Amino acid sequence: MDHLSSLLEPGMLVRLPTEPDWGLGQVQSNIHGKVTVNFEHAGKRVIDISQVSLTPVFDED
User: Fold this and answer.
1) For the segment 41-52, what is each residue's pLDDT rounded down to a tens digit?
2) Do residues 32 and 55 touch, judged by C-beta distance below 8 A?
3) Predicted model pTM
4) Among residues 15, 39, 16, which one has the least CA distance to residue 28?
5) N or C: which end of the chain has fewer CB within 10 A?
6) What secondary structure letter does DSSP report for 58?
7) Long-range contacts of 13-20 (CB under 8 A, 24+ apart)
8) Residue 56 and residue 3: Cα distance in Å, rounded?
9) Residue 14: domain span
10) Total domains in the fold of the chain
11) Can you give the CATH number for the domain in which 46 is found?
């Protein structure tokens, strides 16, 4: 798991680079490396961040 992903907290906005069609996601929880994210176009997904990295979005202009 990368260090940045371990800092993901509920409410943060993220994208999953391998699934750009899913759109912007909002972190719901981060428990033991399993991050639940609610994506605009894919709904709620559980992401294992030891396998896939999420990219935080700090400015969505």
Assistant:
1) 999 999 999 898
2) no
3) 0.87
4) 39
5) C
6) S
7) 13/56, 13/57, 13/58, 13/60, 14/54, 14/55, 14/56, 14/57, 15/54, 15/55, 15/57, 16/47, 16/52, 16/54, 16/55, 17/53, 17/55, 18/52
8) 12
9) 5-57
10) 1
11) 2.30.30
